[in-house]
Amino acid sequence: MDTNPVLKPKLATPALILSSVTITACVVYLVGAAAANGPDNLFLLLTAAMALLAAAVAGAVWLVRARRRRSWMAGANEKWDHFNDVKRSSGTTAELTVVSVDALEPTGSWITIKWNRFDHVQRAWIEALPEPIWPGSVLLISPDPAQVRPGAPWPATYYIRASDSLAWAPGSEA
Questions:
Q1: Is 112 exposed, middle or buried (0-12, 13-18, 19+ CB in 10 A)?
Q2: Are 143 and 126 in contact (CB under 8 A)?
Q3: 3-state SS class at 100
Q4: Rounded to whole angstroms, how far apart are CA atoms 138 and 99?
Q5: Taking a C-beta distance cutoff of 8 angstroms, is the pair 115, 94 a contact?
Q6: What element of type H or E holds 102?
Q7: How are strands ordered across the β-sheet holding 165-170?
Q8: Residue 170 contacts residue 39 (beta carbons within 8 Å)
Q9: For residues 5 and 137, what is the distance between their CA atoms, to the nearest angstrom?
């Protein structure tokens, strides 16, 4: 299963923070105790070595998470730069946030969208796109004037053609 590229990877979780603090305290105590007792106490030396190994594993987890988050941030910034470039170079556009993906079908998807400018939530049918659609994505579309007109009521279901979808980027709250 693919992971949602819209969600920002977590750097720190309560479990990782607590275990890192505990491991650090153990390493400081055990290495200090092993240094004070010298090589006489084999159990203390082995315990200190295990604590150092646990500290190395925790450090590796922190480094992997930091690298993953940095990579995600660079990709998100790229997506937003492309999004803004397309927005500037296109005519009339609208930003939609995908609230949920309700049903996937071979020809498209039933989704719930929020029109960012109007804060209006409604169901929509979006034709299949080259990339999957994820909840939290912000879509830039060319609105269809036949469906949305000033002064007219909102349609019950908005239809988004694949050709009208110009760009997407991760949501700003991600």
A1: middle
A2: no
A3: strand
A4: 9
A5: yes
A6: strand 94-105
A7: 157-160, 120-127, 108-115, 94-105, 137-141, 165-170
A8: no
A9: 9
**Average pLDDT per consecutive 10 residues, the chain (174 residues; last block may be shorter):** 76 92 91 81 85 94 94 92 92 91 90 92 92 90 86 88 92 61
What CA–CA distance (Å, rounded) separates 37 from 21? 24
Is 133 within 8 Å of 105 (Cβ atoms)? no
- Two tokens, residue 18: 């607590």
How far is it, in rounded angstroms, from Cα 61 to Cα 51?
Answer: 15
Q: What is the pLDDT of residue 41?
A: 79
Whether the CB-CB separation of 101 and 135 falls below 8 Å is answered with yes
Residue 70: C-alpha distances to residues 3, 15, 25, 73, 173 (Å): 17, 21, 28, 5, 17
The residues, ordered by sequence, that sit 6+ positions from 26 with a Cβ below 8 Å of its Cβ are 51, 54
Query: How much is the pLDDT for 174?
Result: 45
Smallest Cα–Cα separation from 58: which of 23, 26, 86, 6?
Answer: 23
